[in-house]
Amino acid sequence: MRGWIVLALVGLAAQLVDGSLGMAYGVTSTTLLVAAGTSPAVASASVHLAEIGTTLASGASHWRFGNVDWKIVGRLAVPGAVGAFLGATALSHLSTESAGPYVAGVLLALGVYVGVRFTTGSLVRRPGRVRSRFLVPVGLFGGFLDASGGGGWGPVATPALLGSGRVEPRKVVGSVDTSEFVVAVAASLGFLLGLGTAGLDLAVVSALLVGGVLAAPVAAWVVRYLPARVLGAAVGGIIVVTNARTLLRGLDVEATAGVVVYPVLLLLWVGAVVYAVRRHRREKAVGADAGWGPAEGGDEDPERELEAARS
């Protein structure tokens, strides 16, 4: 029973991060299961089965708070599902560990870009819409990486959409989390066809599911009021730190380089978040228009916007 509660708390914490920042549920949960001795394929399968419930709850919560752009969801979810099914099928038959350092390098670069852009750059939104020719490859790659690596949908889709500069951060997170339901279903089907039910522990799945479902409404509320600059700085830092760890391990230099790299990255991350908070306060004080609308850093009339979202 104690182990079940611990897993439920992990699912709760992972969903709080995932639902408010658009990533980390799969990475956090899969890492724990693999560390406990579960094979990568079974760990990823267990997490994706739990994600069917957590992403459904998360998507409903984000919709309730007006954080979802359904046009983006439709064009992102379908290629994401295709990629996830292929990734689950591949992982069921082979290991993708050798590709880890290369993927981590790409994601680390995306994290640096997002962190720098939202911490120091202009947040004035560029006119236009996110096109399918951009969303389709993002969905395919993100879905494949998510299923084959035990996580990756959020780290790929969230920074890609944030970096486009055409979507509000809260709607990026809400749309990515909502589309992940379709990705989780497709990945689970791929794992069930490739692995069957061998090795799956329903107690583990249920614990992660319960914790994630409880956290989903809270996370959807948090992202609605989190300033864009702070959100971008936090997301960028998470991507950089997480993938720097994967990269160092893949290159087998974590023991020597980690003692220097990790403290430096953490200091830079904390500094970026602090700077983002201060800059947001200065812009708010002088009435600067950051281009995302009042909902990104504290609504001028949250009750009115909530009523509009309901209708």
UniProtKB/TrEMBL annotation:
Record membrane topology: Multi-pass membrane protein
Keyword terms: Cell membrane, Membrane, Transmembrane, Transmembrane helix
Keyword Ligase carried by entry: no
Region (Disordered): 289-311
InterPro entries: TM_pro_TauE-like, TSUP/Inactive_protease-like
Membrane spanning residue stretches: 40-60, 72-90, 102-124, 178-196, 202-223, 260-277
Compartmental location: Cell membrane; Membrane
Pfam families assigned: TauE
Family: Belongs to the 4-toluene sulfonate uptake permease (TSUP) (TC 2.A.102) family.
Name listed for the protein in its UniProt record: Probable membrane transporter protein
Protein's organism: Pseudokineococcus basanitobsidens
Upper taxonomic lineage: Bacteria, Bacillati, Actinomycetota, Actinomycetes, Kineosporiales
